[in-house]
Structure formats: C-alpha cells, structure tokens
C-alpha cells in the first residue's frame, strides 16, 4: 500500500508514520532543515507533516512551474487549517467562481477607496497620516520615540476611512481588534501553518496559545458583526457608497435586483471573513512592515544616505513625495525589493492544494498534496541572485530589464497574489520616503537591536533628527 501510494512522488526523506516531519520541523530552524533536505533531494521534494503530503518548491523556477504553468491544478485548501478558520469564507480562502467574483470586487474597491485616492488627492487619509507623523517626530526634537505604536495608530486611521468611513467604526474598536489579533498572530507560528485537515481540529486545542487565540478571534468577530449590522441598518441603496462595507452591500443588492446568480456569494459571512483579514493585516502587518524598513535604514546608514540623496535630487526638500514619484526613484524601489528578499520571517509558507492529479517535472503530484512556497531558498538562489548573502539593492537596478532578477515573492505568485500588495507597498514607500526626506534616523545612544527582535515585542525605539539639525 505504502509503495503504491508513494510511487512516482518527488523524492524526499523517510519519516515517522502519520506524524511525518511534524516531530522534526521547528519554528526557528524550519528553513534551515528544509535547506538541508533540498541540498540532498533537489528544489522539488516531498515530505509528510501530520498526515498531509507537502511538495517543497525551493526555487523561483519551481514556484512558476507549479503556480503559473499548472495553475489550473491548484487552489486554496478547503480542509480545516489555521487560515481557513480565522478568515472563514473571506476572499483569501475562497475558491472557484466565488473567489473570482469576490476578488474582482475587492480589487475594484481597493482602487476606489485606496490607491486611486492615494494618487489623486493629497488630502486623503494616507497623506494626512504621514504629515501627522512628520509633525509628531518634529515635536520630539530628536529624542527617542517608540515608533511602532505611532505607526499602528496612523494605519488605524487610514484603514478606518478606507474600509468603514470615519463614522463606521470607532478608533477604540479598531484598537481592540488589533490587540485581539496580536494574540492570534502569536499562535500563527510557521509550523502551525502546516497543520491541515480534519484531525487538525483535535490537534490545535492541545497547542499552546490556541484557546487564547480562539477567545480573541470571537472578540474580533463580535465587533465586526456589530459594525456590519449597523451599516446594514443605515444602508441606502440609492446613495453612492462611501466605504468598503457600503459598497459591498450595494453590490449585493444590485446583483439581487438584476437576478444575477453571483449575488449569493456576497454573504455576511464572506464579508466578515474579508474584513477580519483586511483590518488585521491592514493595520498591524503594515505598521510592522514600515517599522522593519525603518529599522533597516537605521542599521545601514550608507543606504539611508543614498535614499536621502535620491529624494533630494528627484523630489527636492520643499514638497512631500507622492506615489507618482515612485517610478522616478529607482534606488528606493530597489531597496524595498531587497529588504523583502532578505526578510527572514515566515520564510516558508504553505501554498495551494492540488485539486486533480498531475505530473510536473516527471513527478506525480497527487490530489490533496499541498505546495510549500520556500521563500528562503527562492530568495537565496545563487542562480538568480548573485552573492545572495549580501544586501545589494543595485541587483534590481540593471538597465537591461532582461537581466534583472525575479522580484521577491513575499506577496505570492500568479492568480492568488495578495490583493493588498499595492496598498501595503504604497504606504511603506510614502511613509519611508517622507520620513527620510525630513529626518536622519538613528538608534538612541547606547541602544541597538539585532535581527528583528522587536517583532516579538512590537516595539522599536528610534531617534528622528531633523535634517536641518543633523550636523
């Protein structure tokens, strides 16, 4: 039976029955363990984890073969997992026609209430929040400041306006969601992402942090259900929607009126699942991403000086950078790509589930197998990135575009790329460039943080020295 089941699979290690590599893979060394296996078996190999077959994709070429060339063979897993539970029925976990319809709608709304306004209106919430940050840092006059909490507050304001409208949800409610989501993130360890399937329902309750995560998930769900119900009670189908929730309700109503069968996909459950992801990732994740980029420029003063010089040369000192400046600032853009490439958190992430048996590279990929996006190996592939161990933004600045290496895949590849990528990266770009235009960033005297330890505490202390006082 075992011979027949495993016949034709990609090569891989022999492991414990059922448990597989769940007894071997650890959160802090997972990427290194998989790196050793890849050196032995190649960039495509298989292993089991708690009864689930995983196919490691350890190169850009492998990821493209699986998720682009054979995209029709893969989709999000419908089995129970940490993602399907917390983002239940949301756009990120949907499949088939519901996913296509919901994703198209969500992208349209992000453009309408997010990126379109960022480009066209300098008075919109993102620009307002950035200028408030500049004022906040100027008031500190170069003294030490904990920047993550401030960024979180600013991202709160941006998201409140984009998703709910200023009166749609209170600042305290968003803060409560953020605090609750922090407990959920603590449970979202790398190896917990690997558990997939029916038995996971019985394994998770035995894991540390599970019940705390469940308690806080219910808090988030309760808040958002109340917010949605309030929007529904005040909804006017004849008014132009002013935020994401109203747009969702109007879209559902319009499709019902037209007899469009896709109206059934616009359920309250799907809306809540989508909002949980947008609110949670749109605040905490974005704030931490911005802080990571800020920490990096503090650690690498030479790069900070290059970024500042490029900003002064292209934008000047009199006006604030806008999103239109991004294409004129190649070094900063390359710098952002290189940080994503070298970022170590969540270095391996389960990808998609095979929905019909197929053959890739001569290997049998059975139905039910799950791909594993090994970003650590993809981003450190010497065939794509020369001297990958070195931090070198210029690798993305080759004038001959055909010779430029592939961009990092932190936000996914193909049809299932994160729909919030553009919104997230635009916020990072604008916060980073505007802050560096106005301040030289350093650590407080006698303080220095190694690696990304601040991610564990959610705190990062920096000094922002006004440019006219840095000498």
Automatic annotation (TrEMBL):
Keywords tagged on the record: Endoplasmic reticulum, Heme, Iron, Membrane, Metal-binding, Microsome, Monooxygenase, Oxidoreductase, Transmembrane, Transmembrane helix
InterPro entries, A to Z: Cyt_P450 (IPR001128), Cyt_P450_CS (IPR017972), Cyt_P450_E_grp-I (IPR002401), Cyt_P450_sf (IPR036396), Cytochrome_P450_fam2 (IPR050182)
Subcellular location: Endoplasmic reticulum membrane; Microsome membrane
Cofactors that this protein relies on: heme
GO molecular function, one term: iron ion binding
Ranges that cross the membrane: 180-204, 270-294
Main subcellular location of this protein, as a coarse class: endoplasmic reticulum
Topology in the lipid bilayer: Peripheral membrane protein
Pfam families on file: p450
Residues given in the record as heme binding sites: 418
GO CC field: endoplasmic reticulum membrane
One of the GO BP terms on file: organic acid metabolic process
Domain of life assignment: Eukaryota
Record PANTHER family: CYTOCHROME P450 306A1, CYTOCHROME P450 508A4-RELATED
Family per record: Belongs to the cytochrome P450 family.
Job description of the protein: May be involved in the metabolism of insect hormones and in the breakdown of synthetic insecticides.
Designated name of the protein: Cytochrome P450 2A9
Organism name: Parasteatoda tepidariorum (Common house spider)
């Amino acid at each position: 039976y075992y011979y027949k089941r495993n016949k034709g699979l990609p090569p891989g290690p022999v492991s414990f029955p059922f448990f597989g590599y769940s007894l071997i893979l650890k959160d802090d060394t997972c990427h290194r363990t998989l790196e050793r296996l890849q050196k032995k078996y190649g960039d495509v190999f298989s292993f089991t984890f708690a009864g689930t077959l995983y196919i490691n994709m350890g190169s850009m070429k492998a990821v493209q073969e699986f998720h682009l060339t054979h995209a029709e063979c893969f989709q999000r897993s419908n089995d129970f997992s940490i993602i399907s539970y917390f983002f239940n029925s949301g756009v990120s976990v949907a499949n088939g026609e519901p996913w296509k319809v919901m994703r198209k709608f969500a992208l349209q709304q992000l453009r309408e209430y997010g990126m379109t306004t960022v480009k066209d209106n300098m008075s919109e919430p993102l620009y307002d929040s950035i200028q408030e940050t500049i004022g906040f840092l100027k008031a500190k006059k170069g003294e030490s400041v904990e920047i993550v909490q401030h960024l979180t507050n600013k991202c709160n304001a941006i998201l409140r306006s984009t998703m709910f409208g200023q009166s749609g949800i209170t600042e305290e409610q968003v803060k409560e969601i953020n605090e609750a989501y922090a407990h959920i993130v603590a449970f979202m360890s790398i190896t917990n992402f690997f558990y997939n399937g029916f038995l996971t329902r019985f394994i998770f309750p035995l894991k540390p942090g599970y019940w705390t995560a469940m308690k806080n998930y219910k808090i988030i769900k309760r808040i958002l259900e109340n917010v949605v119900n309030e929007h529904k009670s005040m909804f006017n189908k004849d008014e132009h929607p002013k935020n994401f929730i109203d747009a969702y309700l109007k879209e559902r109503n319009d499709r019902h009126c037209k007899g469009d069968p896709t109206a059934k996909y616009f359920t309250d459950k799907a809306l809540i699942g989508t909002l949980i992801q947008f609110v949670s990732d749109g605040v905490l994740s974005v704030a931490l991403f911005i802080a990571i980029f800020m920490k990096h420029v503090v650690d690498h003063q030479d790069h900070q000086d290059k970024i500042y010089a490029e900003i002064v040369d292209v934008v000047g000192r009199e006006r604030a950078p806008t999103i239109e400046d991004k294409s004129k600032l190649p070094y900063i853009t390359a710098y952002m790509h290189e940080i994503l490439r070298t970022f170590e958190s969540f270095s391996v992430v389960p990808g998609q589930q095979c929905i019909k048996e197929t053959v890739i590279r001569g290997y049998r990929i059975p139905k039910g197998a799950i791909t594993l996006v090994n970003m650590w190996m993809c981003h450190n592939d010497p065939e794509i990135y020369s001297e990958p161990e070195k931090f070198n933004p210029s690798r993305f600045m080759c004038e001959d575009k055909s010779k430029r290496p592939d961009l990092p895949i932190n936000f996914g590849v193909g049809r299932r790329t994160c729909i919030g990528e553009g919104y997230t990266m635009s916020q990072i770009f604008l916060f980073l460039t505007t802050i560096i235009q106005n301040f030289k960033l350093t650590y407080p005297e006698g303080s220095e943080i190694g690696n990304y330890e601040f991610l564990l505490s959610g705190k990062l202390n920096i000094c922002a020295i006004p440019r006219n006082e840095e000498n």
